[in-house]
Amino acid sequence: MAVVSDSRVRGASRSDDLGSIVREAIRQFIELNGTTPEQISGVRSTDEGWSILVEVLDLERVPSTTSVLSTYRVDVDSDGQLMGFERVRRYVRAATDGS
Question: For the whole model, what pTM was predicted?
Answer without folding.
Answer: 0.79
